[in-house]
Amino acid sequence: MKKLVTILFSLLFVLAATGFVFAGGDSEVSESAGAGNLAASLAVDVSVLKAADGQALIKLEGAERVVPARPADPSALPETDPLHWWDMEFAGEITNKTNIPESPADGAIGKKITMIVHGDHPWTTACTNGAQKVADVYSMDIKIQSPNWDLAVQNQMIDQAINERPDMILLIPLDAKTALQQARKINKSGIPLLLFNMLPEAAAMDYAIGWTGPDDFGQMRKLSHIFADALGKKGGVAYVQHAPGGSPYFARCFGPISELAGYAPDIKVLDKQAPGFEADKTMQLVSDWLTRFGDDLTGIFASDDSAQALGIIEALKKVGREDVIVVAAGNSKVGMDLVKDGGLYAITYQTAEGDGALAVKTAADWFNGKEIPAITNIPQHMITKADVDSFYPPQW
User: How many whole angstroms separate alpha carbon 180 and alpha carbon 156?
Assistant: First the structure.
């Protein structure tokens, strides 16, 4: 017994000499480790990171936007009134945050996050590449999943993520209305949620820490001004829409329609359809438009500058129409090449890598105890032949 007491006394002496305080036990060791993690995490500098196109991976200058007062009932306004879309365009500006977890403020290094995107696409690959770049510099464990545009599969992935208990879930809501149910489920599980890229129904924002991504409506409004000026503020326009249900479906069609109603009221809407993202289907749609509308079709506004743009240009070439002004959202290699050769008049700079990177950086900021804005946008820029060379090599 005497020998055992001696051994215990010696052990306590060693622990005291090394700075271990017995009374605090594991909690004090944990606090010390957390403080070290936080200091190291705050020291991480993402400003030096570059996207594949040589642009800064994360850039927030120029992302500010003016938010008009919300009408009493936006839905009562006509769809040609920009304020009709207030609840979607400015989702998250008015929120009633519910059951939002408090940041542990113990650093981002080593955290586990699950990123669930919307579907397989070269843009998505670039987006997740950007996310991985930021995760790597923070030594965060990131698991990326894609439901390939299937809402049921995305819901299954959310259930799986909840069961795996990551430190945060990052989600591109595939359907704006269903996003509310998804956000509520994740919120109820106690796992922090950050939404990004595609806007959800406004109420979904109540259950998320915040949202990051492009100001899609704002970009389309700016692009529509360039479009209208090229058309001489007159003529007939048709819209090749994005996949139905998601926020780009609305932003990239009704954004310009409602903007042009005021900026260039003599421009008429001839048709709007969503053929998907296959060049052949878009080509057939545009060929039908050329037959139906003839010379009345003077402009086409596309929601995608890659496959859709290729289909549009091919249809125009087949009938020798070089007078139709075409603009599109996005800046893929296909789109930028088409801007260089004159097939596309203008496109938007929507950094795919920066989109994913901003979401992960925002997650890191939250783990580091920083205050997270309800909305964080990436900057807007319209690309024309005058500056397209500045954005090569393309991100995707």
Answer: 15
How many angstroms separate the CA atoms of 389 and 380, rounded? 17
Give every CB contact of residue 226 below 8 A, 6+ residues apart in sequence.
327, 345, 346, 382, 384
Q: What is the pLDDT of residues 182-208, one digit of tens each?
A: 999 999 999 999 999 999 988 999 999
- Is residue 92 within 8 A of residue 205, CB to CB? The reply is yes
CB 345 within 8 A of CB 382: no
Residue 164: closest CA among 109, 114, 202, 123: 114
b/e map 333-366, b = 16+ CB within 10 Å: bbbbbbbeeebbbbbbbbbbbbbbbbbbbbbbbb
Give the 3-state secondary structure of residue 131: helix
Q: What is the mean pLDDT of the chain?
A: 91
Q: Helices 307-318 & 279-293, crossing angle to 10 degrees? A: 40
The answer to whether 92 and 211 are in contact (CB under 8 A) is yes
CA pair distance 282, 240, nearest whole angstrom: 8
327: tokens are: 């603009």
Contact 200, 365 (CB under 8 A): no
Question: Domains, the chain, ranges and CATH?
Answer: 2-42 (no CATH), 217-348 (3.40.50.2300)
**Rounded Cα gap, residues 242 and 301, in angstroms:** 11
Looking at residue 354, its amino acid is: G
Confidence class of residue 351 from pLDDT cuts 50, 70 and 90? very high
Q: What percent of the chain has pLDDT over 70?
A: 91
Total residue length of the chain:
396
pLDDT at 24 over 60: no
Confidence of residue 32 (pLDDT cuts 50, 70, 90): low
> Which residues pair with residue 300 across a beta bridge?
238, 326
Cα distances (Å, whole numbers) of residue 357 to 51, 134, 296, 382: 9, 6, 43, 21
For residue 291, pLDDT beyond 60: yes
pLDDT of residue 246: 85
How much is the pLDDT for 3?
Answer: 41
